[in-house]
Amino acid sequence: MSFAQAQKPTHYYVEIHTNKGDALLKLYNETRKHRDNFVKLVREGYYDSLMFHRVINNFMIQGGDPDSRYAASRQKLGEGGPDYRIPAEIQSGLIHKKGTIGAARDNNPAKESSASQFYLVQGRVFTQAALDSLEKFRLKGVKLSPLQRDTYSTVGGTPHLDGNYTVFGELLKGIEVVDKIAADKTDSNDRPLVDERFSMRVLNRPEARDLERELKGLPPKKGLFTKLFDSFKSRQYKLP
Q1: How far apart (Å, rounded) are the C-alpha atoms in residues 52 and 117?
Q2: Does the entry feature the keyword Acetylation, yes or no (predicted)?
Q3: Which of 63, 64, 98, 155 supports an S-S bond with 117, CB 3.0-4.6 Å?
Q4: Is residue 103 part of a domain?
Q5: CATH no. for residue 173?
Q6: Collapsing DSSP states into helix, strand and coil, what is residue 186?
């Protein structure tokens, strides 16, 4: 591997700032269309000061409706967003475990995603008996994979969403933020009684590189060649 290749992060990472704490999101390369669209919107500041406008405890917290930026108290939200959709990128190995991010959508038959609205999964932990019941009744006899059974009986999540919505990333830090927001008191439209606003930013090249080193148990790169390289390179980066 060349020096330049070693300096380039392998994924995009997004910080989510809320009044209940911060979280760090890793976007999957396997869902490139969703990944690139989300990074574009975050870099444009699209999500700044929007709300988690739909919150259901033991299920998920949803945000990304631009109408929430200046919404009146108790205004019903959830219909806003750009005038395009993202083609579905649903994959069997990317499931709705606790802490994942998924793309919201309407009932279109192609299961195309909203361009901006997303949800962070909270869900719950299931017993094996509960998963048996889920297969029989809610999934109409469809069997869960060993990955699903192991994940939903340990980490937890929302298994009935699998195969119907695109999962495109997961939280590396800050799952407790989801738990705190999910516990909010809400109105009849599942909107929190106290507004839950957030903002986001994409980690820059040096930050993402050092994060990936940290995740491998390595110290950040601070040598002369690294500083020289960073001085000539844009702090933003583009993945294939």
Answers
A1: 10
A2: no
A3: 64
A4: yes
A5: 2.40.100.10
A6: strand
Q: Which domain holds residue 82?
A: 13-202
Closest CA to 186 of 4, 55, 18, 24: 55
In a domain, 234, yes or no: no
Q: Answer yes or no: is pLDDT of 230 > 80.
A: no
Q: Which amino acid is at 125?
A: V
What is the per-residue pLDDT for 5? 56
Rg of the Cα atoms in the chain: 19
Question: For 2-47, what is each residue's pLDDT tens digit?
Answer: 555 567 899 999 999 999 999 999 999 999 999 999 999 999 999 9
* pLDDT confidence band for 63 (50 / 70 / 90): very high
Look up the pTM and report it. Answer: 0.94
Does residue 71 belong to any structural domain of this protein?
yes
In angstroms, the CA 223 to CA 225 distance is: 6
How far apart, in whole angstroms, are the C-alpha atoms of residue 56 and residue 181? 9
Are the beta carbons of 126 and 153 closer than 8 angstroms?
yes
- Per DSSP (E only), the strands in the chain are 13-18, 21-27, 50-56, 60-63, 85-86, 100-103, 113-114, 118-121, 167-173, 197-202
Average pLDDT over residues 112-132: 98
Q: How far apart are CA 215 and CA 172, in angstroms?
A: 10
Please check whether residue 223 lies inside any domain of the structure: no
Residue among 183, 176, 169 nearest 89 (CA): 169
